[in-house]
């Protein structure tokens, strides 16, 4: 059975996300690729997540990102793909905020990008996504764990900024 990247630091970030969402009456959605649903697992493990978490889309193959999440043609380990994924998650899941991530978990490169390359996007309904590029070191599990933590932190920060 595969390991989970849900960790104590992720739990703390999810608790902060829950506090913000409930205090502001917001809903949240996710769209993820390289993490294969681990971000959704981390969020849905929160006791009260059903009150504010709309759900997540795991779009692992490029065709799914292009077809379902409106990723632009071409490579999918890109900032425009992360932005399209976040924008689509807000729309498809009717959420106030979404976070999306796409990247290369490893162990080897993909699409000319080295392992550990990750693009994260946060989006608020009716606004343009913010995208950040991250590089994580280590084995695939370390990359996935870093990606989940970064996605949660970016979403908390985006909601905090309003």
How are the secondary structure elements laid out?
Elements: H1 8-24, E1 28-32, H2 38-44, E2 53-58, H3 62-67, H4 79-92, E3 97-103, E4 117-124, E5 130-135, H5 140-161
Parallel strand pairs: 1-2, 1-3
Antiparallel strand pairs: 3-4, 4-5
Helix pairs in contact: 1-5
Organism: Arthrobacter woluwensis
Domain CinA C-terminal: 12-157
Pfam family, one: CinA
CATH class: Alpha Beta
State the helical fraction: 40-55%
Strand proportion: 15-25%
The CATH superfamily is: CinA-like
The H/E string reads: HEHEHHEEEH
Q: Give the number of domains.
A: 1
Number of strands: 5
> How many angstroms separate the termini?
39 Å
Structural class: alpha/beta
Mean pLDDT: 96
Q: Could you say which overall geometry the principal axes of the C-alpha atoms support?
A: globular
Low-confidence parts = none
- CATH topology term: Maf protein
CATH architecture: Alpha-Beta Complex
Rounded to the nearest angstrom, the radius of gyration is: 14 Å
Strand order of the largest sheet: 2-1-3-4-5
Count of runs of 4 or more consecutive helical residues: 5
InterPro entries: CinA-like_C (IPR036653), CinA_C (IPR008136)
Organism: Arthrobacter woluwensis
Pfam families: CinA (PF02464)
Domain CinA C-terminal: 12-157
